[in-house]
Amino acid sequence: MEPKIFIDGEHGTTGLQIRTRLADRRDVEILSIPEAERRNAAMREDMLNSADIAILCLPDDASRHAVAMLSGNNSVRVIDTSTAFRVDAGWAYGFAEMDRAQGDKIRDARFVANPGCYPTGAIGLIRPLRDAGILPDGYPVTVNAVSGYTGGGKQMIAQMENPEHPDAITAPHFLYGLPLAHKHVPEMTVHGRLDRAPIFAPSVGKFPQGMIVQVPLHLDNLTPGATLESVHAALVAHYAGQEIVEVVPLDESRALPRVDAVELAGKDTMKLFVFGTPGDAQVNLVALLDNLGKGASGAAVQNMDLMLSA
């Protein structure tokens, strides 16, 4: 019998993309609530408790409530795509490439917290340097990023695509999170193994899917002897043997005239770059991904597959 998967919130942006990715799969059975019944609490609770894996695509409080609905039922495993449990020690963090042991932790876990899109890029760049001892304690990390507008869900999609919307957004690019208290900062700090919260400057562009995350570094403030080449080598060593995360060779990076935020739109992979001039004192680390691919729905399916392989 195929394992039963219930996507709680399947009619939202992330849920719809997970459902699309699973549409042709014959190795799983999808439990689904018709859109007209999506507020039927009894039906929802029954499906939650009937699943082998429940994927929660809900706001934080709704996710916490959904987990509470499983009280007394220890057979249902959960992947949560909200921010509710991402720094909870009782949940496995769903970034399989974060370190060598993380894939096994996800495989064996009952509760998995799917990473955020921005943190996937930031942690993907920062964690290898912390693990390698290149990025020292106390370094003032900054994270600058731009995301496709689908990361804001149906509300922002309507604002960006419907000029008649009462709060339509006409700007081609805008900053937000201006008080520097974005909900992703704790996640970046904990899983990036930082002892000092980064300054995070997120923004949104007028394109549906795609993302660029940048972490600029001063080499002379890193561990003595750090160079552009040693930083790149640390990333290469960290992701050796991985298929989803690619570290672009330095010679290929040097040949690029630009990095396009939508290059990986519709894909579930991530590219990492190290930019700079050999011998100079600065480098710019860049992660390229789809905010709904490796940054959300694609990661949820990857985590589901790991859990099913246990």
How confident overall, as mean pLDDT? 96
In terms of DSSP E residues, the strand content is 15-25%
Helix coverage percent of residues?
A: 25-40%
- The number of helices is 10
Biggest sheet strand order reads: 8-9-7-10-13-12-11
Can you tell me about this structure?
The model has no long low-confidence stretch (mean pLDDT 96). Helix 1 (13-22) packs across helix 10 (293-308), helix 4 (102-108) crosses helix 10 and helix 5 runs parallel beside helix 7 (185-191). It contains ten helices and 13 strands. The strands form two sheets. It has a seven-stranded mixed sheet with strand order 8-9-7-10-13-12-11. A six-stranded parallel sheet has the order 2-1-3-4-6-5, with helices on both faces. With 310 residues, the chain is of the alpha/beta class.
Give a quick set of tags describing it.
310 residues; alpha/beta; six-stranded parallel β-sheet; 13 strands; globular
